[in-house]
User: Fold this.
Amino acid sequence: MKRLPDKTVERLSQYRRTLNNQLAKGKTHIFSHEIANLLHITPVQVRRDIMLIGYSGTLRKGYDISEMIELIGTIIDTDQGVRIAVIGMGNLGKAFIHYMYEKRTKLKIVAAFDVNPDKIDKSYEDVYCYHLDKLEEIMIEKEISVAIIATPPEVASPLADRLKEAGIRGILNYTPRPLSPREGVYLEEHDMITSLEKVAYFVKN
Amino acid sequence: MKRLPDKTVERLSQYRRTLNNQLAKGKTHIFSHEIANLLHITPVQVRRDIMLIGYSGTLRKGYDISEMIELIGTIIDTDQGVRIAVIGMGNLGKAFIHYMYEKRTKLKIVAAFDVNPDKIDKSYEDVYCYHLDKLEEIMIEKEISVAIIATPPEVASPLADRLKEAGIRGILNYTPRPLSPREGVYLEEHDMITSLEKVAYFVKN
DNA sequence: TTAGATTTGTTAAAAATTTAACAGCTATTT
DNA sequence: AAATAGCTGTTAAATTTTTAACAAATCTAA
Assistant:
């Protein structure tokens, strides 16, 4: 399949979660407009995305929820799953771990890192926290390919260097300080304050 | 000024933060390509955004940092500032409060809400936590216009109803369950798992 | 069995966003 | 003072993303 548009990939993840919810409620089929309502996007967009991933629904019955979840999995998930580290065991790091806890996605947080002795060598919801000094070692041992940076902003950039050196493939930066892209490392930034300021701006008008 | 593109608004917020950093380092002027490098976008995009907000730099000296910060402020900030509530005092809620703590933006978190007695009637970094029952009362008293939802997903939707009823103007939903839009309420969604799955997808390829 | 109502799949059009191209200043160098 | 180099501001082109439009398929009901 040719490369999917970025925005479609983002939505696939949402579709799957929504579909799982519906499945849990006992539904077996769903219409494009139902998905659309749940995610407040348009039905056309849903159908188009579904077309792009090469799935087909049944006319007048809609899409088979299980099949679609399955298919999205083959697209979004890697076979072995992606193994993730959270760096920074503050509130945000913990929030991530809590979020992922007991969700059975192919994404798995397999380690946390911090420099605070109070946090090190303890588990938080099954995720063990190591001293940051052990980063490289554990990354190899646990085959970690993605890192979430949830540290104070000033350490983000040197950390990214270390991660790259140690062979990271993707970084999700939740720090307000943007990182410069590194060759061969997929970088996604998210800035909580920007989200807020955006809301604030549109509230004004 | 006519309505700015959404994406530009998002970037203005980032520009300002970056400019503040540079100002703190003693710089007084900055070129478009410098801003661009710091945020890893293109210089053209920076110049275009700056054009859209009606600012001009000096040729061969670049943009005056202070002036630009000032101007972005007049666009992004409201005069009185926006007063914000965090709902849900879990890790994520705390992360938000911590993030905003002592940042002198016009955005101010003025209250938190929860239902857990251990959290209620205490302050976390100067933000007082009320029982959720007092939501409407406090919202009016403190003139809150934006709410960040950081609760467990299942309560998000009824909560949004209450918020709307109480006159909220904007909602930032950090719950994985998407909310349906409500008339007159600006809604911004952010799903941490989607961010992660996006990274995971692009790491694969 | 014909008409009507739904709902999908897809192509085409529209809108939003990003990138390119380049003219026009201003400082600097020769 | 003429040539050069560096940057800005802006219009135009390209790309990406969303929305519209509609034919085709399937069920329902008269």
User: Anything to note?
Assistant: Residues 73 and 144 of chain B are 20 Å apart (CA to CA). Residues 5-8, 41-42, 44-45, 48, 58-61 of chain B lie near DNA strand C (CB under 10 Å from a C1').
